[in-house]
Write the structure tokens for this entry.
Amino acid sequence: MSNDADRVSYRVCPLCEATCGLEIRTRGREVVGIRGDEADPFSRGFICPKGYALKELDADPDRLRTPFVRRDGVLEPATWDDAFAEVARRLGPILQEHGRDAVGVYVGNPSAHNMALSMYGPVLLRALGTKNFFSASTVDQMPKHVSSGLLFGTMLSIPVPDLDRARYLLVLGANPLVSNGSLMTVPDVPARLRAIRERGGKVVVVDPRRTRTAAEASEHHFIRPGTDAHLLFAIVHTLFADGLVRLGRLAPHVAGVEQMEALARPFTPEAASARCGIAAAVIRRLAHELAESERAAVYARIGTCTQEFGTIASWLVDVVNVLTGHLDQPGGAMFTRPATGSPHTRGTPGRGKGIRLGRRASRVRKAPEVFGELPAACLAEEIETPGDGRIRALVTVAGNPVLSTPNGARLDRALATLDFMLSLDIYLNETTRHADVILPGLSALEQSHYDVVLRQLAIRNVATYSPAVFAPPPGQRPEWETLLRLAGIVAGQGPAADPAAVDEMVMLQRIEHEVTSPASPIHGRDPAEILAALAPRRGPERLLDLMLRTGPYGDGFGARPDGLTLAVLEANPHGVDLGPLEPRIPEVLRTPSGKVELAPEPLVADVARLRADLDRPAPAMLLIGRRDLRSNNSWMHNLPVLVKGKPRCTAQMHPADAARLGLGEGALARVASRVGAVDIPVELTDAIMPGVLSIPHGWGHDRPGAGIRVAADHAGVNSNLLADELALDPLSGDAVLNGIPVTVERTPAP
Ligand SMILES: Nc1nc2c(c(=O)[nH]1)N[C@H]1C(S)=C(S)[C@@H](COP(=O)(O)OP(=O)(O)OC[C@H]3O[C@@H](n4cnc5c(=O)[nH]c(N)nc54)[C@H](O)[C@@H]3O)O[C@H]1N2
Ligand SMILES: Nc1nc2c(c(=O)[nH]1)N[C@H]1C(S)=C(S)[C@@H](COP(=O)(O)OP(=O)(O)OC[C@H]3O[C@@H](n4cnc5c(=O)[nH]c(N)nc54)[C@H](O)[C@@H]3O)O[C@H]1N2
Ligand code: SF4
Ligand SMILES: [Mo]
């Protein structure tokens, strides 16, 4: 395969949170090979099948390479100038007549994996100034932002398990051997979990499915979906009842311990066991093992977030980590100190404003705002319901809410009624088929990369910058320019708004902010001097350089000459290792009290709801989701290498349930919920808990007018036709996507 003319580039994979280093071999404009970068200090050569698939993604003929504009009802290729002119022509009057809130925005998951989108998306949002902002966070991790914000002071103060030093790991509602980790940036989870067992440690998985992670663990327990909060409260109960609480070094920094003891009282292991399905003796043993292990962490992810008690469960994970003395300790749950900084590295160390929730509510359902967002599950009703403040136009940025948010059918219908829709996307899919204008992003290989978001949650402090592998083709625009031009347009500068001018303004504001912040290393410096020092960089690189140089390891523009700059990262293409995580309490805290707030009022108030749930009878069948190694939410099913083989959009069911329902392997089952029904083939497996059904999300590529031909041949069904848009975790607004009550029957013959 290798050839003298081949070029080798190093690039961090942007597809999931693992941030693997890739070695990409190219010949001209063609990718000839992709493998793991052995010299990457963090990923050490690890790669998954999606990493290889970047080659097909780059070459996919269905990937959009030109803007599209709807003319006489039909989406047609258009020039960039025409497309921006259409945006100005259509959006202008809506803003003028109906105000800023008439334009809704939905931002999807790839925004967190893309430097241009994560840095400049917020610029467009600020320019728009709409209160109708939605994102994939409320079908994902919002409960963890809320609980972390309340406990530690910022939405990004999320402890991550120190995998490389842990000797005991309790995993709830996560399948990192398949997802490759989430709210825990770490490549090569398989080797790292194996290493825990090899050093004599233990990995325990709690999941309604015996997942790949569970199969590789020391121990697995089925749990009834939606009941993790009960289990965790019973562990807290046991820690107090059996005298296992030890705060250690954190003792002077923790408030609310007595209150936790009182709150946990009703949740005896026996009471919780009846609800969650795990034996009381096992619950007690888990509490003892966690407390008695020297280096242990509880780690939980999406199965514990996208459920009825998502915020309570997310909270109790860290309560257990604190009460067992494992928070902020090597081998426990620790805080990253990211190179580009974070809300918990800025401002006054040890104290802050904390967070405020529910400053306003959504118009129709009165759902509380959370960190400036409204629940994605409210989007359809805000479009449909007449009256002042109705969403008349929508901007989607790297999102596919028709497939990824609850009651997708209702949203699908609502999108068709908009006065105007603009999508920034790389595919014409189930969502963007409704757009009037689509502006495409570049291939991942045509843009530079730094994981500004994900490296904030890394289990090791690491910084890696990847230059673009290929130059963008002539006539194509980088997305940061598109976002800045749109920001100019909505600010009233007309269709020819100059992105470079908006970039200058954004940059100056950022520098002003730094030099006027007392805690910044460049406090009091002259903005013009800083701007000059960043020349000739512009766009994302200039902003990244500023963030690195004013960050925790930065050169402070001369203050620490051997400190980090973008130039240093450029000279180290495999990444710069900044070392293992270090204890950060109390400095990391940004709560008003300067303490870890173990029992914050909004969470305490929600416990009554959980107590009432203790005696609730479980419904017959509960639906949960599933991820596959070769999927990435909804949008990588157009790549042949990832969809080949037997169909993966099946309903997994326990043989005992199937026998009761008269369903055999491969039979078509009709699964119905309050909001919809799907017909889907049954896959029998004893790896699922009886009474639980699992359907993966991100399928249902059968919508007319989409331009994803390979995906259409492997359509599957949209599991979010079953998710109920009215079922939310009240504190975070997160949708309930796991533990959906459903009925199942054999699909009637036509
Ligand atoms: N039932 C159920 N539903 C779920 C989940 C579940 O577990 N169960 N998981 C939820 C989770 S965790 C998430 S994060 C959400 C994801 O929800 P979304 O973010 O709404 O959906 P994605 O499928 O990630 O779609 C991403 C979109 O971005 C586009 N895209 C990809 N790369 C780029 C780029 O570089 N630029 C631009 N402009 N566009 C790009 C893709 O074409 C696609 O349209 O789904 C959620 N939905
Ligand atoms: N291959 C692949 N990788 C991905 C993605 C993908 O689509 N495909 N998506 C990416 C994204 S956006 C995200 S957010 C992450 C998510 O990363 P993970 O959270 O690791 O993702 P899942 O594999 O969905 O794992 C969730 C687990 O929770 C279980 N579960 C469901 N309900 C409950 C419950 O009530 N309690 C408990 N304890 N468990 C429950 C499910 O059976 C499942 O095994 O993955 C990322 N990585
Ligand atoms: S694990 Fe994630 S980051 Fe690593 S190669 Fe696979 S998709 Fe890319
Ligand atoms: Mo996600």
Notes: The longest strand covers residues 677-684. Residues 108-110, 114, 136, 139-140, 302, 397-401, 404, 424-427, 429, 441, 479, 625, 633-635, 697-698, 719-720, 723, 737 surround MGD (ligand 1) (CB under 6 Å). Residues 80-98 form the longest helix (19 residues). The chain has a mean pLDDT of 97.
